[in-house]
Amino acid sequence: MFDQLKAQPADKILALMQAFREDPRDDKIDLGVGVYRNAEGVTPIMRAIKAAERRWWEEETTKAYTGLAGDPAFSEAMIGLVLDDAVSRDQVAAVATPGGTGAVRQAFELSRMANPRARVFVSDPTWPNHLSILKHLGIETVTYRYFDSATGTVDFGGMMDDLEQVAPGDLVLMHGCCHNPTGANLNIRQGHEVMELLNRKGATPMIDIAYQGFGDGLNADAALTRLIAGGCPETLIAASCSKNFGIYRERTGLLMAVARDRGLRGMAQDNLAYLNRQNYSFPPDHGARLVSIVLQDEDLRADWEAELEDVRTGMLALREQLAGELRRLSGSDRYGFIAEHRGMFSRLGLGPDLVERLRKDHGIYMVGDSRINIAGLNRDTVPKLAKAIIEAGG
Ligand code: LMR
Q1: What is the residue range of 138's domain?
Q2: In CA terms, which of 55, 258, 275, 360 is 20 to 30 Å from 335?
């Protein structure tokens, strides 16, 4: 049987992670995979998570299964964090999933169950794994223009023109904040226009929100998601706790389905629980438990928010520094967009040869499309990166 299998294409981001590990150079710089690192290059366990873990170790009395949808307290806490009071709680179906990726996968499957012919519209570019999962599921994908690489900003006119092609029942995937890979985001006025278009066309929005708190703050980063969920009859939302709670390997995410009424909410909830059962039965609990402890405890929550804010402002300072260095060395403002982008990533607009030279000659690893992870830098490596880019002809 195994001889019938075909080799699968390597995931570019994970392959880069491996290549970086194997590079023996001491001064190599990892700007690849989207994992937060502090100035010492460490991905720390957040203080509030460590405290919650200690508490839960004392309090946990059983490892018996939770429900198929996971612990309801986790869903409650996360719905509050992402949606606040944008929609009534009795319109929101939710299941815990293994990470944000699990939520994305379940959302695509749910839409295929509802309408096997539905197409999914994705931004060009988007997180490569979106495309990979859609291909694996045999769902037709259509790209819409999103990024103007000449200016490093959103090509909003192109996006709206392309979204005119959506048909009733199609799914339109958007990034809630901190667009991956570009770092360029819609503003609220643009969000309104997209919402009106989707409602006019009868398409369903799906929002992948994996970096809430990494851009402009917890509430500002959720504003687009809240607007769409409050203004469209139905919305799917895949939320990840990997980055903002720093619990990557615990695989913690939530899929929310905002329905137009309580009856349809019940239908969505049943189908989501069914999907969990078919794919892996019960979702992982440990990370979800830590998140609900942190969000429900006033002190832990305040400490988590403070630490997250330090992470966010630290990344913003690195953005300013990098944009400043590149301005100084290039004598132009062509990299000014780096300071305007938000989240972990910026797509620099460098060609593949240049990206390759940076890796070979300087041990600087970025994704082939020239996406950098800002959190892979620190105050000392920013000037090195800027110098290498300009010297290599960027
Ligand atoms: C990324 O885009 O680097 C992250 O979302 C990690 C991943 O799984 O690709």
Answers
A1: 65-296
A2: 360
